[in-house]
Amino acid sequence: MPFADVILPVPLDGTFTYAIPAEMQGKVVEGMRVVVPFGRNKAYVGIVARVHNEQPQDYEVKPLMHLPDDRPVLLPGQLSFWQWISDYYMSPIGEVYKAALPAGLKAEEGYRPRTETFIRLTANYHNEAALHAALNMLARAPKQQSAFIAYLQLSGWDMVDWSDVPSCTINEISRDELMNASETTLPVLSQLVKRGLLETYEVEVGRLNSGGDPHPEHIKALSAPQQEAFNQILFSFLKKQVTLLHGVTSSGKTEIYIHLIQRELDQHRQVLFLMPEIALTVQMMQRLQRVFGSRLGIYHSKYSDAERVEIWQKQLSANPYDLILGARSAVFLPFQRLGLVIVDEEHETSYKQQEPMPRYHARSAAIMLGAKTLLGSATPSLESFYNVQTGKYGLVKLTVRYQGIELPEIQVVDTYDLQRRRMMNGPFSPLLLTRVREALDQGQQAILFQNRRGWAPMLECPQCGWVPRCEHCDVSLTLHRTMNQLTCHYCGHSYQIPAACPACGSQQLRGRGFGTEKIEDQIREIFPEARVARMDLDTTRTRNAYERLIADFSAGRTNLLIGTQMISKGLDFDRVSVVGILNADAMLNQPDFRAYEHAFMMMVQVSGRAGRKGKRGQVILQTKHPTLPLIRQVVRHDYNAFLYDLLAERQAFHYPPYYRLVYVYLKHAKDSLVETASIEMGSRLRQGFGDRVLGPDKPVVSRVKTLSIRKLVIKLESGINMPKVRQYLLLARNLQMQDKRYAALQIYYDVDPL
Ligand code: ADP
Ligand code: ZN
Ligand code: ZN
Predict the structure, then answer these.
(1) For 559-571, what is each residue's pLDDT tens digit?
(2) Is the distance from CB of 114 to CB of 204 less than 8 angstroms?
(3) How far does the centroid of ligand 3 lie from the alpha carbon of residue 470, in Å?
(4) Which residues contact 591 (CB under 8 A, 6 or more apart)?
(5) Average pLDDT in the 117-139 region?
(6) Which ligand is nearest to the CA of 253?
(7) Which of 226, 250, 375 best tests ligand 1's pocket when mutated (most atoms within 8 Å of CB)?
(8) What secondary structure letter does DSSP report for 619?
(9) Closest C-alpha to 262, from 236, 287, 244
(10) Which ligand has the nearest atom to the CA of 226?
(11) Whole-structure pTM value
(12) In the sheet that 296-299 helps form, which strands lie side by side, from edge to edge?
């Protein structure tokens, strides 16, 4: 009797063997979905990894229950891709399966109906008094209250003009969207529905992108330097699978990508275009759609699951999208004839998945797909730069901006000195305010960058120094004025702002530092005539909010944009003449070996938003450390000097890219237990790895969501036998977990952490 090894969506290593019943014989093949019994009375949709005739000896196999499809949902090669991710990132294959397939394909009932549940405020509460009464009523049900408030904010009900409700715009909010944005659960929402505050309704999900006819004639002719780079890329691909395109901001990398894509499409091959974050896709999507029309498909997690299932099916069909634009999960899509992968902004850390498993890096994964791969960036990652140096990747450089526009002039402002002389206006230097004023007067736009959202990074009692902290995490809370609450940026929990200091009774609690909310507030005061917008996580929780902010700024309806790192990324605006980096030090002072790397890239990327069209842009960089070599390298746009300095340091201190890092995390509710376990784990690992093991240590934030955390670091020299390393690591973890005291202990590995 034949058997099938099946991958199940469970966090256990390996596959599970089932018997293939007579009526299914000959029909079951690798990559197919099967429904199988598991545990006492559960059924799962699994994926067939292998069909064979080897009867398992030590247990009785159960038969497959059901075959939902008549062909595989995976294409050849995808299973070994999963296996690579599972091995390399030390994550059970079941976790890879969970990450890879849209939920609709993993659900037992097969594909979900094409509707999505939306939520709205019931008509009874479309007036201010009733709404206030409702909020008061919910005071004793804080979870419901915060879910309800989140709904009001997302939908815009918190901003309506009560004298004219019918003409106010209320956003449609899907249930998933609300749950994603507010960490709310289904039961909490059901309570609100039961109370008659909210009601649900079904909406048919948007049909797949019907982008219209392709228009190859919209492709722009390349400039001479761009054409040269294009040719070099093709030449490089003759010898290397991977090529790095290092092109300064606004050099026209995107135009080159478009030419490369068209070339692949002409040769009947598909292209995968990866972007680091969903937030960035709007402008890119429009640029690609203009040329490729309905040949372009978009795939990312903000799309509904039904839409993602549909795209998956289409990619299996005879008429797949030729070009897929997606965030990191798009590497899991089936491609029938993939010719090229483009990894745009390849240095971006959001390519690495943090939670949950598998903690994979989409750039590394994309390369494993085996197609020609182009990595593009104005600030390449150290890893990629190193791979160029060692000859593994090809390199193509584009050093001039399109139409020869100069890179922005970066002026450094010493805020330490200005503060001493009492010349700072809150977070703004006189020079910055002058430049912003000039920009606005001349009909230009300005961008202000501050990498902290909220009103103030912390609240503080000026009398006794008391600072409110999260009950569940080891961090101070961020003050949010618009929502009138304190929020934990680690677990999302929010708290009321205390009226007085619980330690000394002082009523003068005040916020310390500047978040984007406060910056916005002060800017509005200084420039009352400016049309100000703010772009951060808080203002972009809905799918459309981000698009609206971008569209408004693009069209000049707003002229002063304040934002977090969201604004640093790949955006292309024509009229931005000034960019202000309000506090470079906040980025430099992170306790992480990558702090300088991230800070440098962030500053270059943010600066790159200035002066992309027309005249040279200006950047005002505010720091207390104007003489740092790194700051001077930013000013000179001297990426190479920065890289060589950093590489030398990394080599000296045994850090990537010279050494490979594996972080070991241990988590448990009880601090003393995680302490003992991590010390034991440390010596266990040292038995195998000797002094390659550092720690255990408490990470900077040593408690998150009520779990205490310890961290060990393993530094592995290149050339070490990685399969053996992995084997030892898995064994060490299993041995540690066998101890009954550690039943609830979590141990996981993060390979190539960022
Ligand atoms: P990058 O991706 O390197 O930041 P972009 O491709 O966004 O640069 O180019 C910057 C701006 O210059 C964009 O608005 C783009 O449309 C324009 N541009 C670049 N190259 C060309 C070209 N060959 N013809 C016309 N416009 C171009
Ligand atoms: Zn106090
Ligand atoms: Zn918290």
Answers:
(1) 999 999 888 876 7
(2) yes
(3) 5
(4) 700
(5) 90
(6) 1
(7) 250
(8) E
(9) 287
(10) 1
(11) 0.85
(12) 296-299, 323-326, 270-274, 338-344, 372-377, 242-247, 394-398
* CA distance linking residue 747 with residue 754, whole number of Å: 18
CA of 320 to the centre of ligand 1 (A): 29
Neighbours of ion ligand 2 (CB under 5 A): 461, 463-464, 466, 501, 503-504, 506
Chain-centre distance of CA 671, in angstroms? Answer: 30
Q: What is the 3-state secondary structure (H, E, C) of 187-211?
A: HHHHHHHHCCCEEEEEEECCCCCCC
Backbone angles phi and psi of 665, in degrees to 5: -110, 135
Q: Are strands 270-274 and 323-326 parallel, antiparallel or unpaired?
A: parallel
CA–CA gap between residue 206 and residue 337 (Å, rounded): 27
Give the Å distance between the CA of 572 and the centre of ligand 1.
Answer: 9
Render pLDDT for 299-315 as a digit per residue (tens, 0 to 9).
Answer: 977 677 888 898 999 99
Q: Give the list of residues 6+ apart from residue 731 with CB closer than 8 angstroms, or none.
A: none
CA distance 600 to 58: 57
SS3 90: coil
- Amino acid at position 430, single letter: P
- 104-118, 358-372, 422-436: which has the minimum mean pLDDT? 104-118
Ligand with minimal distance to 254 CA: 1
Q: How far is the CA of 475 from the centre of ligand 3 (A)?
A: 7
Pocket test residue of 246, 254, 576 for ligand 1, highest count of atoms within 8 A of CB:
254
Query: Average pLDDT, whole number, for the chain?
Result: 91
State the DSSP string of 245-281. Answer: EEE-TTS-HHHHHHHHHHHHHHTT-EEEEE-S-GGGH
| Ligand 3 center from residue 469 Cα (angstroms) | 8
Q: Is the pLDDT of residue 111 over 60?
A: no
Q: How far is the CA of 350 from the centre of ligand 2 (A)?
A: 39
Q: Are the C-beta atoms of residues 351 and 327 closer than 8 Å to each other? A: no
Pocket of ligand 1 (CB under 6 A): 220-223, 226, 247, 249-255, 402, 572, 612
Share of the chain above pLDDT 90, in %: 71
- Closest ligand relative to 505 C-alpha: 2
Give the closest residue (by CA) to ligand 1 atom 10: 250
> Where does the pLDDT of residue 112 fall: very low under 50, low under 70, confident under 90, or very high at 90 and above?
very low
Q: For the chain, what is the radius of gyration of the CA atoms?
A: 27
Distance CA 226, CA 70 (A): 48
Given phi > 0 = left and psi -120 to 50 = alpha, else beta, which region is 345? left
- Give residue 696's region: left, alpha or beta (phi > 0; psi -120 to 50): beta
